Amino acid sequence: MRWPISDNLRQLLRVRDFVLLWSGSTVSLFGDGIYFVTIAWEVYRISNAPTALGVVSAAFALPQVLFLVVGGVVSDRLDRRLVMLLGNVVSGLMISGLGLLVLLNQIRLWEIIVLVAIYGVSQAFFLPASRAIVPSLIEPELMPQAMALEQFVQPLMGSLLGPAVGGLLIAAGGTGLAFLGDAGTFLVAAAALAAMSPAHATPAGEAARDTSGRFTMLREAREALKFVRGLPWIWAGLAAAGIANIALTGPLTVLIPYLIKYRLHSGPETLGLFGAAGGLAAILGAVYISRMGVPRRDVDWIFVSWAIGTAALVPMGLAGSAWELLPLAFVTLGGISLGNVIWFSKMGVEVPGHILGRVASLDMMVSFSLTPVSNALTGPLAGVIGARHVLVVAGALGALVPILLLLMVPGLAGKHHLGPEVTG
Q: Is the pLDDT higher at 249 or at 87?
């Protein structure tokens, strides 16, 4: 017996522009996995304090928060394909700069912060456009499969193969070589975008047709905010995702590398395997959605998946060996990714195309808004109460909030919002 969803998947892979977009994203995500390991190892080579990596992580995240709304408005007004292409080029140049400075033995912490900050700005324009362009390329009933494919390659490349190869590159040739390898993936992704047809890349609808000259950044941002306020599953989901990201980002980015290297006395290969274990779980979740479709109680699945993923930080803080972290990474990234597949599918179907870039930017901004604070404070907080205690507290609080929102927001729990035509 063949699942009907398989036919949708085959239909999706016949869409040329989507395949180009997906292929370029796959290569770029592989580079992101290399970056995750490389930036942590280089910063800890310069400084063995978790605070240093927290500052670098904040330097990447803060410009994203500041420019995401601008990036969302731009992605709803201009050719989204071109916005993404330019974003990839700038990102590639910044990562190339890191690699060259390392190879020349001229790298300093402030230079890393500057280059990473510009990298963050480029991503603030790239990310809303990348989220908004997909529904313009495919039919609505193919959105769950498109999001499942995205979430399949994201852990496969970004958390499994990329980090593993990144660790091997560092061991073989140093962080300079690894940074240059990451930079090359951005150029490949830009080439794939250049090969796409521009026909569907320019936003359609009311916003795109407005030629009256009354465009203001604030007015268009308010339009998106008004839309979000009218859908409880979106604004409650934004609140849950924001808390989960606060609890997860700093501890995972800053403390897990520190714990592996200085407390559990392991090497970059273990850090790569940590990402790989979580990536495997995320892949299995994406395969499930691609085969079975979005579950009928979709909102319940989103909030509970996020809560379970965050709760796994608690036993991470209690782990006595590096190998104990691997199954917990499986739970963390698997739960977060499963919730994300369903969340992005709903957004692609239920948010009108002409406003999707702005709504996506609000999604990212709210989710990421306190992430720089999380990154910056995680190190000092760990210095006061200990890295392990930070992991335990963050996991407990980050899991509690999504469950409370699910239970307390009227009419949210147990509801099925997507129509049966997109559930598989």
A: 87
Residue 210 domain-assigned?
no
CATH number reported for the structural domain that contains residue 302 in this entry: 1.20.1250.20
The answer to whether 193 and 24 are in contact (CB under 8 A) is: yes
Range of the domain at 23: 4-203+216-422
Closest CA to 309 of 284, 282, 273: 282
Radius of gyration, CA atoms only, the chain:
20
Q: How far is CA 353 from CA 20, 75, 404, 415, in A?
A: 20, 11, 31, 24
Nearest Cα neighbor of 244 from 182, 170, 306 is 306
What pLDDT, in 10s, does the model give residues 325-351? 888 988 988 888 888 888 887 887 778
> DSSP assignment, residue 104?
T
- Give the count of domains, the chain: 1
Asked if 233 and 298 touch (Cβ cutoff 8 Å), the reply is no
209 falls within a domain = no
Residue 208 lies in a domain: no
Cβ within 8 Å of residue 312, ≥6 positions away: 328, 329, 331, 332, 335, 395
3-class DSSP state of 414: coil
Nearest alpha carbon to residue 338 among 144, 161, 127: 144
Instruction: Quote the pTM value.
Output: 0.70
Please tell me what DSSP assigns to residue 411: T
Digit-coded pLDDT (tens) for 163-196: 888 888 898 888 899 999 999 999 999 999 999 9
DSSP 349: H
Taking alpha carbons only, the member of 244, 130, 116, 249 closest to residue 192 is 130
Phi, psi (deg, nearest 5) at residue 372: -60, -35
| Alpha carbon distance 189, 352 (integer Å) | 27
- In the block, tokens 């063995």 appear at 48
SS3 230: coil
Collapsed DSSP state (helix, strand, coil) of residue 271: helix
How many CA atoms within 13 Å lie on the side-chain side of 301?
22
Determine the Cα–Cα distance for residues 279 and 272; give it in Å rounded to an integer: 10
Tokens encoding 304: 């509970």
Give ∠ CA 109-114-120 in degrees, rounded to 5.
120
* Any domain includes 211: no
Cα dihedral 225→229→233→235 (10° resolution): 60
Q: How far is CA 154 from CA 17, 50, 337, 384, in A?
A: 19, 26, 9, 35
